[in-house]
Amino acid sequence: MASPEINRQLNERLDELYRRHLSAGEDGVASYYGSGRRYYGPELATREERDRFSICLATIDGEVYHTGEHQFPFALQSVSKVFVYGLALEDRGRDHILQRVGVEPSGDAFNSIVFDERNNRPYNPMVNAGALATTNLVRGEDPAEKLERTLKVLRCYAGNERLEVHQDTFRAEMRTADRNRATAYLMRSDGMLAGDVEAILALYLQQCSVLVTCRELAVMAATLANGGTNPITGEQALDLRYARDVLSVMHTCGMYDFAGQWAYQVGIPAKSGVSGGILAVVPGKMGIAVFSPGLDVYGNSVRGIRVCEEISERLGLHVFATGARNSMLGPA
Ligand code: DON
Question: Which residues form the catalytic set?
Answer without folding.
Answer: 78, 81, 204, 256, 274
